[in-house]
Each structure stands twice: as structure tokens, then as C-alpha cells.
Amino acid sequence: MDFLPPSLTAYTEAHTSPESDLLRQLDRDTRAHIMAPRMLSGHLQGRFLAMISWMIRPRRVLELGTYTGYSALCLAEGLADDGRLITIDQNEELEEFARSYWAKSPQNDRIELRIGPAADIIPSLTDTFDLVFIDADKRNNALYYELVFDKLRPGGFLLIDNVLWSGKVIEPLKANDQDTTSVLSFNELVQQDPRVENVLLPIRDGITLVRKR
After folding, report:
1. Which parts of the chain have pLDDT scores under 70?
2. Is the residue at 1 inside a domain?
């Protein structure tokens, strides 16, 4: 996921506001005890998510892909006073881990976890969202995008993670697996969508920021 030389990555993080002690401990515990720790947002991306949230001050945030709860805590930082974040994940085995860290945060009561397939849960949501973060299985990015689109307010924002897919998007010879093909197709779908404005940011594994017109 990291395209910059390690020294430049270290420099960017050294010149980014530090993560909280709680997030730092969550990062350490995830890397020490949970499988696939590369799925964690981490310091730089986490501060970016928090900054976007502070800029928007959303009342309603939707996250697809909870993992160990790091990104949910970051997105919850900028919630409006009456704000709430709904996060969806299929992996019930990580629920206790994530909740144990949320419980130590002042945002705990404003984070709602729903366990199950996102494609089944999204249609049942009645909220109108100001900010949506899609960080789930890449093969269904296009499906999730369309399912959440009408639930996003005009002028609202979407963030989609892993849109550079470890650099495979620019390496055609490595683009023959289904995940890479799905990411490529999804990136083109967003680029051609007249309903939005978008910018692909080379942060970590790539994040696309989308504004609904």
C-alpha cells in the first residue's frame, strides 16, 4: 500500500498532527493480535479522515467496513453536536475488540455498529447522510456506491478507500485478478458519473473523494 520511500512516509507522518494515545494503542494492538493489520487506516489516513469530518461537521456518517474500529473513531471526531455514525461490518468476531476501544472514547455513545452484509443493511437505513466512507470488499464497491448514493444528501461527500490497489491499477499485466478489475471498473464509473465531482488522492493506498452535485 505504501508507494513512497519509507523515509518520506516517516517525514509526512512527522509533519502530521499526532494520533491520540487511544488510537495509538488501538493501532499497536491491531498489529500485534489481529490478522491482516494492513487493513487498518493508521496515523496519516486516520488524521485525513478526521480532518474531513471536522471540515464537514456531519450529523450523519455511514461507514462500510469497520475492522477494528480505528477509522470509526477518526470519522466520529468531527461529528456535529447531535451527530451519529453508523458502521457496518460482516465480521462479528472483531465486534468486542472494536467496542472495547470505543468504550474508552467520548464518542462511544455516538457510534452504532451493525453486523451483517452491507448490501442487505443499507436499503433498511432511513437516515440521510452527510458523509459516507466505503472501505469494504472491493468487488462490491460499485454496488455499495449505488446503494448509498440516494441516501447521501446533495452536496454530501463520499470517501472510497484502496482505489490505487497497491499500484496494480497502472500495471496492466497484474490487473487480471477480479479485485483489481473491480477497482479499475469502479474508478472509471466514478470518473464518468455526471452526478458527482471527484478527486483521487494518492494517500496511502489511494482515497477518492467524491462530492454529490
Report:
1. 1-2, 172, 174
2. no
